[in-house]
């Protein structure tokens, strides 16, 4: 899809929809683990998987951030029509991301116990969580490969193929979860094995598709050259985007650490609540990522008018969708929690409902923040996204740790939307100041 010429509203929706559906399927990996583990193994196992999910989200954000940053470079070169520079950018980015993945994977196994101790994992679930992460870390290479090729295809307007491979692997993950946990009685290890097998299916499948379908983007061995300017541009975009994604999820990890100190009941409630959150605001998160590609393609094509019009349209769509989702989550908080927690677990159930009633009411804040992230990243200014992330997460973490001693877990839940709206205020102020400068420059010409 050429996002520099299409109808903006229709183009954004059609381009974003496969990304949204794809990431919803990706969440099925952990969702199926959570449902099956919580229902058939127990609350302690659910708490272990939930805590491991926060850690895995942080690690995945590193690979995703690198790939998303590289995708901005790919989109700009695609918008400019510079295919040779696009080819070199793909080669440099792939080598960089795979190298970082391998080094990080080694470090995780070396420092596994210190990481788990840092997370303040209770002794009651420590062994279960260690078994789970020992296995799940084996799938990080597959996650990295999938995210790279997914971002690459989306950057040139193809958002459908990543959805296809995720659909295949998500179905496989559910089937293997049921087989390994219910059929073979492998417990929490079975859930982890099912997940990594499904991840390798999606990673290997999308890479083989790319190599067969997009041969023109693959340089011949004799054309492999090191280009310091491309590496400079790539590092500037990828590392800053990686930093933004990592800061965002590291803040979540710190919140998880605080939640862990309240014990298995709060941990289980938070694990279920975060899964509901993920599905609730994932569409606006992915819409922000799709919007980033729209912005970067039009930045490459020098279509400032479309960027400004697109920002207005995207903001309106994000606010409306987020408001509807908040209403639905508030009204149906109890049945949503009961998807993960049995009715007899009343303490876990009501703790999770309080979380959704407090935090889930304000999804507009996180929706607009994801849109701002996408805008500044697409403009080639990921540093601003980093600042907004640090502001949002810093506020969230500091308030959570300050309020928790007196308000308990409710203080943690209250801190989350406050951080969102503070970052929104700064981000929109930044956008309007920048737009004013552009308008004055045009008037001056």
From TrEMBL:
<protein>
    <recommendedName>
        <fullName>Probable multidrug resistance protein NorM</fullName>
    </recommendedName>
</protein>
<dbReference type="InterPro" id="IPR050222">
    <property type="entry name" value="MATE_MdtK"/>
</dbReference>
<keyword id="KW-0812">Transmembrane</keyword>
<dbReference type="Pfam" id="PF01554">
    <property type="entry name" value="MatE"/>
</dbReference>
<keyword id="KW-0050">Antiport</keyword>
<feature type="transmembrane region" description="Helical">
    <location>
        <begin position="188"/>
        <end position="211"/>
    </location>
</feature>
<keyword id="KW-1133">Transmembrane helix</keyword>
<feature type="transmembrane region" description="Helical">
    <location>
        <begin position="131"/>
        <end position="153"/>
    </location>
</feature>
<feature type="transmembrane region" description="Helical">
    <location>
        <begin position="160"/>
        <end position="182"/>
    </location>
</feature>
<keyword id="KW-0813">Transport</keyword>
<feature type="transmembrane region" description="Helical">
    <location>
        <begin position="383"/>
        <end position="404"/>
    </location>
</feature>
<dbReference type="InterPro" id="IPR002528">
    <property type="entry name" value="MATE_fam"/>
</dbReference>
<keyword id="KW-1003">Cell membrane</keyword>
<feature type="transmembrane region" description="Helical">
    <location>
        <begin position="86"/>
        <end position="111"/>
    </location>
</feature>
<keyword id="KW-0472">Membrane</keyword>
<comment type="function">
    <text>Multidrug efflux pump.</text>
</comment>
<keyword id="KW-0406">Ion transport</keyword>
<comment type="similarity">
    <text>Belongs to the multi antimicrobial extrusion (MATE) (TC 2.A.66.1) family.</text>
</comment>
<feature type="transmembrane region" description="Helical">
    <location>
        <begin position="353"/>
        <end position="376"/>
    </location>
</feature>
<feature type="transmembrane region" description="Helical">
    <location>
        <begin position="41"/>
        <end position="74"/>
    </location>
</feature>
<feature type="transmembrane region" description="Helical">
    <location>
        <begin position="12"/>
        <end position="29"/>
    </location>
</feature>
<feature type="transmembrane region" description="Helical">
    <location>
        <begin position="410"/>
        <end position="431"/>
    </location>
</feature>
<dbReference type="InterPro" id="IPR048279">
    <property type="entry name" value="MdtK-like"/>
</dbReference>
<feature type="transmembrane region" description="Helical">
    <location>
        <begin position="311"/>
        <end position="333"/>
    </location>
</feature>
